[in-house]
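Q: What would this chain look like folded?
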Amino acid sequence: MTECQRIERTIFKTYRKSIWQPFVGALKEYELLRPNDRVAVCISGGKDSFLLAKCMQQLQRHSEYPFELVFLCMDPGYSAQDRAQLEALGEALELPLVIENVELFRVVEEQTDGSPCYLCARMRRGWLYKLAQQHGCNKIALGHHRDDVVETALMSMLYGAEIKTMMPKVKAENYEGMELIRPLYAVAERDIQLWKINSALTFLHSGCPLSDAGCGGSKRQETKELLVYIKQQHPQADAQLFRSLHNVNVGMLPAYRLSDGKPPIPFTKHYDKDETL
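A: My prediction, written as structure tokens:
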């Protein structure tokens, strides 16, 4: 058994309940894949995206219906060392990486004052859609996991004064026929971290040349630390928060809205009419 085969085996065996089953469950529950889809699995070099790539690769081998995969990497301006590490990880995990060069880091650094993270994220997403289309894909798959979903919900409440989170799939606004999917939506980060340790591989941290220049103290990091504190008091808090996003009792909220850009509808609109939502 090769080292790559051993790593693949852990996904089915060691982490079957914690990674493989939530991965497959999310694909079915949220209807993320269809026959003959061509999916660009977007790989940044971190543990999340490489785990996603291996899960999608294994699924393709055992799927009841055909779909195609492109393991797409965007080099936004990595150092030579980071680029070499990315290529080595692809070889170690037997993934045929397609690496496209985009001078994103340089452009973002020239165009922003202060924290460039927001602009970088938006530009990165746009480039991924564009590159995926060039490779004939109709979907891009990102490695966001359950903790990302919960943290986004908490950030929205604490800093945005609204209740919302990232969705398991989203239709692209500016790229017709394109869709974003998140197959690791129900997988906990702690289980991905355990898989990473078991794999004995060293993944890229970020590769961003600005990450050590004042870009680290983000609201997401603060929210992540808050969630860690909450879980010290209530170990299942992250799982319960995730479930609550699937169990919203709109009738017990003082106001709600059905989509972005629409004004909130107060509960008083239905109260005197004895209407139920």
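The mean pLDDT is 89.
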